[in-house]
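To: structure desk
From: M.T.
Subject: fold request, one chain
Message: Could you run this one when you get a chance? Sequence is below, nothing fancy, just the single chain.
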Amino acid sequence: MSITYDYRTAPPVYPGHPVTCALAVLRHYAGRVSDAWKRTDHGWLVCEGEMSDCPTAGGHLSEGCRLIQRVLASGDVEAAIRAGDETWHRGRVIGGDHPDRFIPGQEQADRLKPQLRAALAALLQVQ
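Reply: Done. Structure tokens follow.
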């Protein structure tokens, strides 16, 4: 499965919806996705350093990793995507710092969901 989404040419709407971040992680770590959530000596996820050119807020790449891990643990792609949407919504409800980005970020994630579904289904087949 080839992921066409590229965060370098179409950056995530800041601070980064979990769906969008998950797709960016899957592309960056194609064939070695579990490397993304290994920990550095300082306790950060490896992807947060290796993907520093991905314009997201701290912790949002880790939300993308959690979405992927949830799928790997449960096999339920739709539940993981719903959880990503809930995380994004919760950030808005509790007064996130970027309320003007909520709708564009959700719209971007919604456009990318078919590609994420396909990428996660392919990942489940090789696990």
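Reply (cont.): Residues 3 and 27 are 6 Å apart (CA to CA). Let me know if you need anything else for the meeting.
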